[in-house]
Design goal:
By secondary structure, this protein is α+β, with helices and mostly antiparallel strands. 44% of the residues lie in helices and 24% in strands. The chain has a 4-stranded antiparallel β-sheet, with no helix packed on it. It has a two-stranded antiparallel sheet with strand order 5-6. The chain has helices at 74-96, 101-114, 121-133, 160-170, 179-194, 201-213, 218-229; strands spanning 4-20, 25-40, 43-57, 63-64, 141-143, 148-150. Helix 1 (74-96) packs antiparallel against helix 2. It is elongated and about 80 Å long.
C-alpha cells in the first residue's frame, strides 16, 4: 500500500483537433491544466503547485506539450500543400505569360493533381487577371488578350508582394516536408516553366524564390532546375 504520493487533479480548459504523435493521425484533444497535491494514504493534503497545460489525446490518453499543435493535422497539411502548389503555379504564369497552350495545360494539370480537381483554365486565367489588376501584387503589366506578363525594365519581374506570397505559402509548409517533398514542389514549377521551352529570366527568378522559401540551398535549387531541363 502506498502511504505517500502526489496526485494531480486535472481541469479541462479547451478542446480541439491535433495530430497525435503517438497515434500518428488526427485526433481530438483536451487542453488541461492541473494542480498537484501531496497525498497520505490516498488523501490529498498539501498543495504542490500547478502543472500543465498539457494536451490529452482522446484516443490514447497520452499527454503532450502545447507545441504538439505546431504540427498540422492531416487535413490542414493537405490544404497547405494544395495552396502552395496553386500559389507557385500562379507566380510562374504571372512571370512567363499564358500565350502557350502547353504552359496552360501543364499549369491546369499541376493544380488538379495537387487537389483542386475542378480547376479549369478559365479559373486560373481569371485569378491571374485579378492579380494583374492589383498593382500591389504584380510589378509589371499583364495583357489579358495575349496572355503576356512583362515587368518594366529594372524592376523585379516576380514582384515584391508576389514573392512575399510565395514565402507565406511555402515557409510554414517546409518544416513538415521531407527533402524529396520540397524538391517535388520546385520541380512541378520547373515543368510549368519548361512547357514552352527554356526558362525565362523572370521564371528563373520565381523558381529561385520558391527554392529559398522551401529552405533549399541555392546550389540544390540550381542543380534541380538544370536536371529538370534534361529530358529523362
Amino acid at each position: 500500500m502506498c502511504v505517500m504520493g502526489v496526485r494531480t487533479s486535472w481541469r479541462t480548459v479547451a478542446d480541439g483537433e491535433f495530430f497525435c504523435p503517438d497515434c500518428g493521425g488526427d485526433r481530438n484533444y483536451l487542453r488541461r491544466t492541473g494542480r498537484r497535491r501531496l497525498t497520505v494514504l490516498g488523501v490529498p493534503l498539501v498543495p504542490r503547485g500547478a502543472t500543465g497545460p498539457v494536451l490529452e489525446c482522446s484516443a490514447c490518453h497520452g499527454h503532450f506539450g502545447p507545441d504538439a499543435l505546431d504540427h498540422p493535422t492531416t487535413v490542414r497539411f493537405s490544404a497547405m500543400l494544395r495552396d502552395a502548389v496553386h500559389t507557385v503555379t500562379l507566380a510562374l504564369l504571372a512571370a512567363g505569360g499564358t500565350s502557350s497552350r502547353a504552359v496552360r495545360d501543364t499549369a491546369v494539370d499541376t493544380v488538379r493533381a495537387a487537389g483542386f480537381a475542378d480547376c479549369s483554365e478559365d479559373e486560373l486565367l481569371t485569378l491571374l487577371a485579378a492579380l494583374a489588376a492589383d498593382t500591389g501584387r504584380l510589378t509589371g503589366t499583364y495583357d489579358a488578350v495575349t496572355g503576356g506578363h512583362c515587368a518594366p525594365q529594372g524592376l523585379d519581374p516576380c514582384g515584391t508582394a508576389l514573392a512575399i506570397e510565395l514565402h507565406e505559402a511555402l515557409e510554414p509548409l517546409a518544416p513538415h516536408l521531407a527533402p524529396a517533398g520540397r524538391e517535388a514542389i520546385l520541380l512541378q514549377g520547373a515543368r510549368i516553366a519548361l512547357a514552352d521551352g527554356s526558362y525565362t529570366p523572370a521564371e528563373r527568378e520565381v523558381l529561385s524564390t520558391v527554392g529559398s522559401a522551401l529552405t533549399l540551398r541555392p546550389a540544390d535549387t540550381n542543380r534541380l532546375l538544370a536536371a529538370a531541363r534534361t529530358p529523362s
